[in-house]
Amino acid sequence: MNLVLSLKNFNEAEWIDRLQALLPNRKIEGWNGGVSEPEKAEYLLAWKPDPAVFAALPNLKVIFSLGAGVDHLTSLPELPKLPLVRIVDPDLTNRMTEWVVFQTLLHHRQHLTYAAQQEAGVWHGHRQWAAIDVRVGILGLGELGLDSAKALKSLGFNVAGWSRTSKTVEGIESFAGEDQLKAFLNRTDILVNLLPSTPATHKLINADRLAMLSQSGALGGPVYINAGRGATQDEVAIDAALTSGALKGASLDVFAIEPLPEESPLWKQKNCIITPHVAAESDPQALSEYVVKQIKGFESGEALENLVDLEVGY
Known about the structure:
Layout: E1 2-7, H1 12-22, E2 28-30, E3 41-47, H2 52-56, E4 62-65, H3 71-74, E5 84-85, H4 90-108, H5 111-120, E6 135-139, H6 143-154, E7 158-163, E8 173-176, H7 181-186, E9 190-193, H8 207-210, E10 223-226, H9 235-244, E11 249-252, E12 272-274, H10 284-299
Parallel strand pairs: 1-2, 1-3, 3-4, 4-5, 6-7, 6-9, 7-8, 9-10, 10-11, 11-12
Helix pairs in contact: 1-10, 4-6
């Protein structure tokens, strides 16, 4: 009943120490350091793993994704058809909601305009619309999207959501499916993208769909915010829309290639805020406890929580 970690951009030794303290009677090893008993490994904790790890561990029972996103696993042809568990943690959800609310308020309260005025030494006020006059649209009404939608609604924003299948959320107008996507975008002043990366969402936000956003809203132009997955957006189209004014502003935490290449023109867009995929960095201890709880429950005969549907990719 051993646990193996295959983690990219994480310190495997620190994670092993943390998990070992919670599971003192288990052998926990990092793939990079070598696995002494691969046939006894039943659990894999992965983030952008070495694809060779799957074939090397023939008796795996469960794979845990170290993060809310699972496209780093579902995109691998080597991924075995085993239970795949994604992270759903209150701390991660809270941090994502903080980032989304902060970026929404930043654009709503015209911070970029005032920051530019401060740099130029200009004292000039601009009309400030009430939150109820601003229509926020949340792409993706999963755990993260629902929490952000409720938080923005509590601040007074006119909030709607779009998802693959129909959902009913009190106080939030819901749209679903391809047939209702245009109507959803047409009514949106601030678009918040929290979609997972799947074949169906690849570059979903492209030039055509950015052009569907409302140009007649209170902000004087639409704003695009993405803390979901970079693969869901066309960055060339975003840059063009920012340059032309079709987008008034943007806040981007995720990109198709990370780190964002130095030559990307998005770096130089003054109306675009860039953060390095930090919107929902969660507490390592909380994530470790989440994994351990799932393992203990699974071994006691309980059902695994937050399983990924491998057919749809999330």
